[in-house]
Design goal:
170 residues, mainly alpha, 6 helices
Length: 170
């Protein structure tokens, strides 16, 4: 369930809302990286502060209706900070990914320039062309099994089976 900007303004103090308003899209895109990191840290601290307050109140387990309303308000505030943190973290991830891509691209361009500037190594062929690599004969020979004995094993099996089949049963 999302919270409208009017609900955020109603739940938060003026100074808190100013920072939360910076986490919404149009203004979030224009924030420099260092300020974005500061905003993320502040949002994380605020969310942790409200999360801790909710835990402490739950531990005391006051069953009064008034304290439950306060806990509900604290939970709503915590959710506002959590959503703002999610937006800011997403934008920060995109900024860091763009920086990483730019650094990788710069490194690749530098490597390509080094390769282009390096002298090419093309040795001359000499006065005469050579025949290249000469084949080495296999000393074992290619034919391990003689061609005349290729089918003799299976034929011997067939002959033996035929003898057994033709024998009269005892």
């Amino acid at each position: 369930m999302s919270t409208s900007i009017a609900d955020e303004r109603r739940l938060l103090a003026a100074d808190e809302y100013e920072r939360i308003a910076r986490s919404h899209y149009p203004s979030l895109a224009g924030i420099p990286r260092d300020e974005l990191l500061d905003l993320v840290r502040w949002l994380r601290e605020q969310r942790g502060k409200f999360k801790g307050q909710i835990r402490r109140r739950m531990r005391r387990s006051k069953a009064e209706a008034d304290s439950q309303d306060r806990e509900r308000g604290l939970a709503a505030k915590k959710q506002v900070f959590a959503r703002a943190l999610k937006r800011a973290n997403g934008h920060l991830d995109r900024v860091l990914a763009a920086e990483k891509r730019a650094a990788m691209r710069a490194g690749m361009q530098a490597a390509l320039e080094r390769k282009r500037r390096a002298p090419r190594h093309h040795p001359s062929s000499g006065r005469r062309a050579h025949g290249g690599v000469q084949p080495i004969e296999n000393p074992k020979g290619a034919d391990i099994v003689q061609p005349s004995t290729v089918g003799s094993i299976t034929q011997a099996g067939r002959v033996a089976q035929a003898r057994r089949d033709s024998k009269p049963e005892a």
